[in-house]
Structure formats: C-alpha cells, structure tokens
Specification:
MetI-like fold; mainly alpha
Amino acid sequence: MNVRRNGWFTTTLAVLVYAFMYAPIVVLIFFSFNESRTNVVFTGFVNRQPCGPFYWYCQLFNNSDVMEAARNTLIIAFTSTLTATIFGTMAALGLQRYAFFGKRAAEASIYTPIVSPEIVMGIGILVFFSAAFGWLNGVLGLRGDNRLSMGMTTIIVSHVAFSMPFVILTVRARLVGFDPSIEEAAADLGANEWTTFRRITLPLIAPGVYAGAMLAFTLSLDDFIITFFTSGPGSTTLPIYVYGLLRRTVTPEVNALSTVWILAVLVLVLAYQRIEARD
C-alpha cells in the first residue's frame, strides 16, 4: 500500500515538474498562431492570406533581417563549435595523458569560464578586445574602415573561449575509462601515432567528442550576454535580434521565431541521440 502511494506521489510530482518546465514553451507555440499583434491576450487563431494559420511564420521567413541574423548565428555556431571541439579534444588528451609543469593550474583554469558569471566574462572580453584593437590600430596605423573592430570574428573567438572548457571536461570524462593497452597493441602491429589516433583512439572517444560538440553548439546558439558585449555592425545574431524586438513590441512573429528555433534544437538533440545509440 505504501509502495503504491509513493508511486502515485512520484508520478504526480514528475508531472508537475515537467508541466512547470514545458508549459511556457507550449504557451509560446500556441501564441505563435495568435490573431492579435500585441501578443498579450489570445484573441483567436490567425487566418490571413496568403499563409492562413501560418501567417506569422510567413512573415518571419520573408523578413530579411531575421534571415541575416539566422545566417550570422549559424556561421558563428558552426565555426566556434568546430574550433572548440578540435582544440578542446587536443587539450583533453594532453591533460589526461601527460604530466607537465603547470598542469594543476591549467586544470583549475578550465573551470573559470564555467563558474564565472557570463556578464563578468563578457565585460572582460570586451575590455581585452578594446585594449588590443586600440594598441594594434595605433601600431599598424590603421584608420577609418581599415581599423580593427568588433564583429563576427570577435564573437567567434569569444564563443570558443567559453565553450571549449565544456568540450574538455566532456572528452576527459570519456578518457577516464580508456584502456591505453589498445593503443599499445596498435603500435606493436606497426601503426604510427596518427593512424592509431584516427582508427583507434578517436572512434573510442567519439561519443564524448560528439557530446562536447553538441554542448558547445547549443551554448553558442543561445548565448546573448557575451555576444552582446563582443558584437559589432553587421554581426547581429538571433538572440540579439529578439532582444531588439522585445524592446519595441512583442508580436507573434517573435513566438514563431522561437518555435522554429526550439524545433531546430530538438532535431539536433534527436540526431545526436541516434548517433550515440548507433555508437
């Protein structure tokens, strides 16, 4: 009897927790079909030509500013993820396998970007780039449009800086249970270091690399604070664009954009789960 009561209690608690987490998302998707432009009260389902109930989605995809922001966001996310995954995997292998001077300090420094508030890191990166660009512009004599300034490159570098520690920790967790005798056997059979890494080490740690890359990608997609401090003209991302819309009027177009973004992230998560299950 007690087990049954505990089962009902656990089920009810789980339902309430999931409802608390996902009810706002359901409401957001629901309001993307709202007739009213104010997006405060649901006045009915929109049914305007030429898209009918998907009117706000058509408005979204016909908005050139949104398309440019989406393009910038994806370029930044893919570039920073690829860079962070490569260097993060290399760093994880070095920290896990080798002993060197300053190793403890290097391991401790990995946690700094993770535990530091984003706004502190954003201001720090802004100050660094401002000082570095000011010095370089003066030394190189750059003027006008040739001056070094904030833009896509600074955002990508910043995203690599805060996402690489997550890749390092994820890959190192995979390396903890790695059996080095497998690599030794490959070397005994005549494989060089690159062949051993490509055909033995990388396939075995691939789930950790995929997980770190997925984490870095989602962090880059959703980042606002650090991007806000390091962005410049022509480098507006979707989070910054949505923030600009919220400062004016919240229309169902914002809900439509958020819905598309949620579905895109969901597809990525499902794809990763398929890859992980296959491995």
